[in-house]
Structures are given as structure tokens and as C-alpha cells.
Amino acid sequence: MDSQQMMETSIVTGGMGTVLFYLYTKSDTETEVAVLGYLACSFLMILLHQAAPLFHVNPVKKTEGIYRSINSQGLWSSFLIPTICVLGNFITKTDDKIDSSLLFVLLTLTLTLVHYNPSNASQIAGALLLLWLKEIFKQQGSSSIQLCVFNSIMFYSTLSKLPQKFPMSFSYGESIIVLQSTLLIVTQFLFRTSILQENEEEINTVSDHAMIKIAMLAILGVFLASVLLHLIREYTSKLKFYIVYSLVIGVFLIFGLPRQNPIVILVEYFSGNLIRFYLVTWYGSLTAITVMYMLLHSKQTSVSTATRKFFHVIIVAVYIPGLLLDPTFLTTASLLAFCVMCVIETLRHMDVQPFGRLIEEKYKLFLDKQDEGPLALTPIYLIFGLSLPLWMSFIFRIPVSDISVYAGVISVGIGDAVASVIGSKIGRVKWPGSSKTVEGSLASLVSQIVTLYCLQYTGKVESSWTFITLIAVTITTVLEAVTTQIDNLVLPLFLYTILLLNML
């Protein structure tokens, strides 16, 4: 048996099993019990498929050349986003109803199992699982059902097309997380916050919320433009690239915010707020340092682990001041930064001149060995992983002063960076079946505990020192050592899931 897979499966089982048990003790309505029943049964089936290769059973079709060449395809990752959504619903519940977005992410578990193992037994089990959600379906209106069905069709159809379009770029679990989170965030920002359906008074109000809307609409424009450009890739030129991006993003902004002038919003957004001016200046300085750092090392043929982890230091210097001083501004800034990273990757991947080749030359030195396919995803995942806890907290209206919002900073920005640097320098004892070292993991755990203490010392972070928090960072540290999934993506979500228990 593969000891690394066994440890990964054991850690995930312990962490997620604890979450499910804790949720069970807090459930007090029929709807919550139904959701937990569905979640628990789905998790058991996911674990069976996750553990099947350990017993030399391969329940799925061959995936060589489609997914990343790793021992475990990380099916357990599909459980993270649905669990976070259930936790968010438990924390902020106002009634006994479940919205369509939560229903959709729950359905992705059944869709994933049927897609992963398209046998008659899996299809029958999937149909039986849906019986748990029968009463929840009855609560939904026709528009909610239509939206849920549309998202489910998009999820299932794209689940096969995404890795085929970009082979070796994703593991199975990573592709699921990307699709779940993308469709969830789009649905929540556009429909739950009613960006396109607000009344006239709200549209004329310049606020923090308006800037988040603009950033989200820009992201939607980038996604649509990128998809469109990939569909017409053989006809794509430099001129067409800029025309398509400008038109699509412009249309989204014009029709998404028809009565608001983005320039006026921007001016009023910063007027009288010195903290935001300081943060913009600070972020600009960090950007300049990053560019200079890349140029300084661009002539080298290879770089060390410590050199690559410099970007983790930069990202921590971005997120901690933002979370402590102005989380709403950081939400907007991170959405826009994610948008920019997607544009940069599209320029690189499609070799749009004059920037495509230049970006490729600067990127190739700093890419991780996990970037096996045509897409360079680890830099995007770094921003995405650190931002997801903040974005999910915004969606579920979880206080940004809670330690859970710092899950990405603690696990990836601090823990993963320290583990890699210390492990590569002085690490000697390796974890079973893994290239990671025990020394690196111990240094990671200590650094995360020190970070928790420092955050508590600021007086602006709640729940820093609890038993749940210490257990969460400990098992996340061990997971970092044994998982074959991309750390930047799965570790923040795993830690965030467990830290949310502090709020129940």
C-alpha cells in the first residue's frame, strides 16, 4: 500500500469526520439534519473511492495524460467547498431554508461520484443520495431550481472538458474545486447580492459594495473573454485579443452598473480614507519589488526553493495589513489581482505578442514542478487560495475579524513557505512516502503558532487561541507534508473548514 496516500486519507478522514460530528451536535432542524445526512453519506462514498487504489482496486477509467501524474487524484478535495457552504449556512442561518447555491454545491458531490465512477452501482447510489435532499428541493422556487439545474449541467459538462482542454494541468480534485468555487462565487455575487437587479436608490449609492461589484463584473468579463478567445484561438491575433477583452469587460460593466460612473466611484472610494491610500502605496511598492526581483533572477538557469518562496513573503505582506486594517478594500483588491493574474496567464498561454513571450521567459524560472500542463496555475492558486477564505466570509457574512479569514495566510503564506525553506536547508527525516521532511513540518507548525500569537496580540483577531485552532493548524501541517494536491489551493480550504467550527 502507498503510505503517503494512507496518511493523506487518514488525516482528511479525521478532520472532516470531526467537522461532521460537530455539525451534528449543532443541528436542530429537519433541514439541517437532512443536509448532514446527505453530507455524511457522500463523504463515506468519497472515502471509499479515495481509498480504493490503496487496495489495488481501480474503479475509474484510465486518466493517464489527462490529469496530473500523481499517486492520488485527491477526490477528497471535492468535499471542501460543500462543507464550507454548510458551515456558513449553520453560522449565519436566519430560517430553515437552504438557498439554491448551497443546494448546487451539495449536488456536485453526487455528480462527482457518478462522473468519477460511472458504474450502475454509483448511479443507483447517487439517486438514493438525492432522496436526502427531497424536502430541500420542495423549498425552492422555480427560478432557484432552474439556476441550480443550469449550474449542475455546467459543472458536469465542464468536469470532463476542462482537463481535456488543458491536460496535465489539474488533478481530479483540483478541477472539482476550481469548478465548484467559480460557479459558486459567480452565483453568489450576481444573484444573492442581486448586483444586476438592485433598485435605483442602491445603484446610485457609492459604497464599498459597489467597488466589489465592479471587481466581480470585471472577473466575469475576463472569464467570458478568455473562453471566447480559446474557442477562436486559431484565429486569434494581438488585435483581436485586446478587442475581445475590451468589449466583453466593457459590456459587463456598462450593463451591470448602468447608472454608476466607475471613475466617480473610484474617487469617492478613496476620498477621506488615508488607510486606503497607505495600502495602495504599500501594495504598489511590493509590486515594484516583485518585478525587480524577477528581473534580477531572470538571467539564471534555475532558482532555489527559498528564492521561489519569496513570493509567499510578498503575498503575506499584502494580506496581513489588508486584513487587519481594511478587509473590505482587500476583498476588492484581491478580486482585481486575481483578474489581472488570469489576463497575464491568458497572454502567456496564447502567446499574444509582445507580452506572451516575455511573460513566458520570466515565469519559467519560478514555476513549480506541479505545473505539468500548459497552464501555469500555481501563481494563480497562490492568490486564489489566500483569497477564498475572505471571499467566502463575504458571501456568508462571517465577521472578518475571525481567525478563519486568515486560513490562507497561516497555512500557505506562512506554514508552507517555512516548511519548504527549512525542509530544503536542514531537513533529513522524510515523511513516509513523501519528499517532505519532518523538520520542515515542525518549523511550519511553530511558525504558524507564532503567527497566531502575533495576530492575537494585535487585538483585532478573534478565536486565535482555542483548542480547535491549535488542532486545525496541526493536522493541516501534516496534510501539507503528505498531500499530492497543490498546497496553494487545498490547504487554505482545509484549514478554513476546521477553523469555522470556532463560530458554531
What can be said about this structure in brief?
With 504 residues, the chain is mostly helical. It contains 22 helices and no strands. It folds into two domains: 1-202, no CATH class; 272-504, no CATH class.
Structural write-up:
Keywords: Endoplasmic reticulum, Kinase, Membrane, Transferase, Transmembrane, Transmembrane helix. The chain is an all-alpha fold. It folds into 2 domains: 1-202, no CATH class; 272-504, no CATH class. Helix content is 71%, strand content 0%. The chain has 22 helices and no strands. The radius of gyration is 22 Å and the shape is globular.
**Radius of gyration over all CA atoms, rounded:** 22 Å
**H/E topology pattern:** HHHHHHHHHHHHHHHHHHHHHH
**Roughly what percent helix?**
over 70%
**Strand pairing plus helix content: what structural class?**
mainly alpha
Overall pLDDT = 83
Q: Count helical runs.
A: 22
What proportion strand?
Answer: under 5%
Q: What is the number of beta strands? A: 0
What is the count of structural domains?
A: 2
Question: What is the terminal-to-terminal distance?
Answer: 38 Å
Q: Report the biggest beta sheet as strand number plus sense, adding barrel if it closes.
A: none
Q: Stretches where pLDDT falls below 50 for ≥5 residues?
A: 193-206
Shape: globular
EC number: 2.7.1.108
Organism: Mytilus galloprovincialis (Mediterranean mussel)
Keywords: Endoplasmic reticulum, Kinase, Membrane, Transferase, Transmembrane, Transmembrane helix
GO molecular function: dolichol kinase activity
